[in-house]
Amino acid sequence: MAFCDSSLDETTRVRDLIRRLTNPEKLFQLTNHGAGIRRLGIPAFEYWTEALHGVAHSQGVKFGGDYPFATSFPQVTTSAASFDRHMWRRIGSAVSTEVRAFHNAGRAGLTVWTPNINVVRDPRWGRSQETPGEDPYVASVYAVEYVRGLQKGDDRRYAKVAATCKHYTAYDMDSWNGTDRHHYDAIVHPIDLAETFLPPFQACVEVADAQSIMCAYNAINGTPACASHLFQTDVLRDAWGFDGFVVSDCGAINDVYGNHHYVKSRAEATAVSIKAGCDMSCGNTYELGADFALLRGFMRRKDLNQALERIFRVRMRLGLLQPDDTQPYKDIGRSQIDTQEHRNLALEAASKGIVLLKNRVSTLPLSLKPEQQIAVIGPAGVASTTLLGNYQGTPPFILGPAEGLMKVVGDGRVKVEKACMDGVKCEDYSGRERAVAMVQEGGVGAVVVAVGLDLTIEREGIDRKELTLPEKEEALVSDIGAELKASGKPGVLVLALGGPVDVSNIPNADAYGAVIWTGYPGQAGGEALALILAGKVSPSGRLPFTFYPAKYVREVSMFDMTMRPSPTNPGRTYKFYKDIKSVVAPFGYGLSYTTFSYHFIGAATGLSSHPPSANALQPSLSLSTRQLCPHSPCSHGSLVDDAQTGVWMAVTVTNTGEVASDTSVLAFLKPGSAQGEGVSAPISQLVGFERTGVMQPGEKRTVMVFGARELFALVRGGGERWLLPGSGVVTIGGHAYSGVSEWDDNKDGEGGSNGEVVAHVPLSITGDEVMVSRVPWASGRREQDIFLDTLIYS
């Protein structure tokens, strides 16, 4: 049979297979569980495999027997806080190896429904922990690196697994104020689509070549995402060139008629979604609705066959549907799960992602006498699956803060008291007296209080109501804080949760000399934290989102999708939130045990694939639109590409302290004057980042940071990016608000500067206005009138 012959071209094979299928056989291939076809020798195939930060429990994954566990890397927000793009790819590669091992044992599929690259618009979103954070550029880079890590293996002919970028698009609300994602219609302006919500998906398709996209539950400007021809065909396929398959989120096709009431029946929902470009239904809606849709003429057989072509192409790209002895990666097995290399990588990722938010008078690293003990108090202080975050698998082990400290400083030097006996909600705070007594013990030299959230408070289906800790956890923080003040002992507050939290209003919170955010740090998170507490590793993580004040939840509705400020919206993310003075900690913030200085050397325009020589560097950031767009018309691309035009910035980084440490160099554009109408510039815009590697005290290192041309452009109301003549400042080093007048630099480090000497480089751009990015729906054939009519402002 021709479809089994891997020497033939893909199209010939796919069409040969489809012409052999009966109509019932075709219908059973449109669901996440592709039925086997015995007469053709085609085995059943389960498409639903989760691998967000490791092989995870899902319909297509079976833990047990010789495969009882898989490596659990940190939740995505923690990995994102490392700003280490190379590590993101290494994690993807490790995860795909373990997925292949499970698959070869018949325990997993090969289409993994990851990564989640939705931008965190609102800090209440329960799934923010799954994402790379609030910046579209970071999310784009993460998408490219993680997808390439997943898909690219040693055999370049075949994908190792097929990645699925989700949830397309404008999805970042699960359940708030009586409305859930199954009913929500996200009203989104073109400027926010182009600037915030679409870029990660464009990078996922155009650059990473993801083989699958998952459409979201919500509607966008009146049209359910999975029924949108505009987004699934005009944008995704026609503008970006996507040639994989689109799968609905589970049950989303039912929502098209049952909750959004876009059409009246299952058959109509099946037809409108398939014709719009959604090829597979997670769930049985297509399986039940397609036959009647064909019978009633809602769709044609060629629509069905086109969906099947896209699905089977991806299976062939995985090396499936061909003889067993030609299967790629068939030798990956049990020995490649939970390897020492993967364990080391999980520890590295947690160590690089943990963020030090406060370190007053050098509370950390802990300095104790040999006979002194460390008290670990709080519900997040001991090992539990809470430290893994959602979409978790079964790890080979979990080390919490207490177990990590026991491993690093010795069992006999760590005392433990949960205090909150029922977990982070702390409704059973019966351990209070024991916790207070432990702090008072003479042998205790330091106290670590570990609190946070869990999946009963923030996860898929549950958005947060507040940006504070549960009430009884706050009581614990306050009670132990009072004892720290009385005893004078050093205290460390550890925050284990997926998003931001404001602890500034808790009584006695100022008693803690150090505050650390760990996110959900995975199986090795406790050891990573212990290494930092003990001073064996210097913290180097930076926040991938803004720590808003607690009042933020009362300042704006979760349903307001706009990013820029308005009378009912204070603005969203570091780019647009206008109340800078109230921010608890800004995007990109993170302290170290040492100090760094940054000195700008020079800059040169060129391609991201070709760093300039030292001789090519100019001593200033004086650019022209012609340099950035040397060809007319200017080519239009995503925020990330292998060979895109932009600005290389060379900076000397010096470790000016006394401790060896790694750090991430972040470069931010602070737009000043820009000549042109319809421009609403952000307060700050990340234009590039790079990791230095561990630097010894006194060491100098030249770091090259690349900023894509598109990131120096400003977005107009219609969604197009324009390079405009004008001026500004690029800060290299520091965080999003370094150099912003409204930010009080004395807040850095909570009581003192974090010691970073940031480079402030004047920027000037001369020349004519040039469009560098068109809106991808400019040639849209359907929904366009509806889309334009539903704009919330023009």
Automatic annotation (TrEMBL):
SMART domains registered for this protein in UniProt: Fn3_like
Entry keyword set: Glycosidase, Hydrolase, Signal
Alphabetized GO MF terms: alpha-L-arabinofuranosidase activity; xylan 1,4-beta-xylosidase activity
A Pfam family recorded for this sequence: Glyco_hydro_3_C
GO biological process: arabinan catabolic process; xylan catabolic process
InterPro entries: BXL (IPR044993), Fn3-like (IPR026891), GH (IPR017853), Glyco_hydro_3_C (IPR002772), Glyco_hydro_3_C_sf (IPR036881), Glyco_hydro_3_N (IPR001764), Glyco_hydro_3_N_sf (IPR036962), Ig-like_fold (IPR013783)
Residues covered by the Fibronectin type III-like domain: 663-736
Family: Belongs to the glycosyl hydrolase 3 family.
Protein name, per record: Fibronectin type III-like domain-containing protein
Originating species: Vitrella brassicaformis (strain CCMP3155)
